Amino acid sequence: MKDYSQQILSGEGDNDYARYMRTDRLLDLQRRSDERVHRDELLFQIVHQSTELWLKLACAELRKAAADIDNADLNSAIALLTRASLAMGLITDQLEMMRHLSPWDFQTIRTVLGHGSGSDSPGWLSVRRDSRTIGKSFTTFVQNRGIDLAEVYRAARHSEIHRLAEALIEWDERVSLWRVRHFKITARLIGHHATGTQGTPVAMLTKLISHRFFPELWEIRSFLTETGPMAQPNADSTQEFGDE
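The line above is the sequence of Tryptophan 2,3-dioxygenase family protein; the predicted structure tokens follow.
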């Protein structure tokens, strides 16, 4: 009988699970109990570190999806965008853990954060960069093929290009919902009129909530409303998609 108790992978750890998942290293990435100024530092670090991991996955999916669009493999791009959006939903949900931080206790944790700020997050820097990249890939695909997105939506058929456009909208919306939740949690912890660790007013976060990576895809909805059955008789039905 085969002995499954024997380790066959090389590396650190007492068993193959630990060696493949690198759990020894992973679980050593948080400050030790004797290093923490407050016990909730563990909660704070785990929420943020796990966010970075999910964003690493989400952005890997975005980059591959952009390449798939460039190669006209829209079904694959749609599937990958769906996975990226799910990852964004997961990091939004886990912000609920931050509700269990006391505003006063968090002031103690802030004393050891230095100038650390979410604006320096490698995951969020990647979100911004990779979202722009996939947006360019989509725009190039549409323009090179002379696709009229208004007609795509009017057709009311779930074509590949329609599903891809909606997958991009889903990603954009998921990012925005995270920003809303993050702002609410931040305001709950330090107040609306406070400043962050890099001197940025909390209120500045509200400006990011309205940011859109794919404004043309949002604007097409306004265009469809303005030219739809309920539009005013004097509505400009000659407007082209993407016009300012």
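Note on the example: The chain has a mean pLDDT of 88. The first helix runs from residue 16 to 21.
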